[in-house]
Amino acid sequence: MLTGKQKRYLRSQAHHLNPIFQVGKTGVNDNMIDQISDALEKRELLKISVLQNCLEDKDEVAHALSNGTNAELVQIIGNTIVLYKESTENKQIELP
């Protein structure tokens, strides 16, 4: 689990990122979870955008993604979800 200080730090790091995944009408599926897992391994910190036409609630989407990828949910702001997962081979972010 992340501490409040670590979450604040990750939020500041994620501020300038653009969302690289979008969750739309089809919701969360296994293929999307696999792709997000791969991207988390490379980048550690990701923004995911929940589109207006998504039938699921953004909180449900966030928890499905964080559980599916074993990542930490850093924040949900508007329709954007921020996820963090420490990379095993490509560690870039040093948490305070």
SSE order: HEHEHEE
Low-confidence stretches: none
CATH architecture: 2-Layer Sandwich
Give the strand order of the largest sheet, numbering strands 1, 2, ... along the chain: 1-2-4-3
Structural class: alpha+beta
| Fraction in beta strands | 15-25%
Could you report the average pLDDT, rounded to the nearest whole number?
93
CATH topology: Translation Initiation Factor IF3
The percent of residues in helical segments reads 25-40%
Work out the count of structural domains: 1
The first-level CATH class is given as: Alpha Beta
Largest sheet: 4 strands, mixed
The H-level CATH homologous superfamily, spelled out, is YhbY-like
Number of helices: 3
Question: Which properties best describe this structure?
Answer:
single chain; 96 residues; alpha+beta; Translation Initiation Factor IF3; globular
Describe the structure.
Keywords: RNA-binding. This is Ribosome assembly RNA-binding protein YhbY. Pfam families: CRS1_YhbY. It comes from Aquibacillus salsiterrae. InterPro entries: RNA-binding_CRM, RNA-binding_domain, RNA-binding_YhbY, YhbY-like_sf. It is a single chain. With 96 residues, the chain is of the alpha+beta class. It has a single domain (4-84), classed as Translation Initiation Factor IF3 (2-Layer Sandwich). 39% of the residues lie in helices and 21% in strands. It has helices spanning 4-14, 30-43, 58-69, and strands at residues 21-23, 45-50, 72-77, 80-84. Strands 1-2-4-3 form a four-stranded mixed beta sheet, sandwiched between helices. The longest helix is centred in the middle third of the chain and has 14 residues, at 30-43. It starts with a helix and ends in a 12-residue tail after the last strand. 21% of the residues are buried.
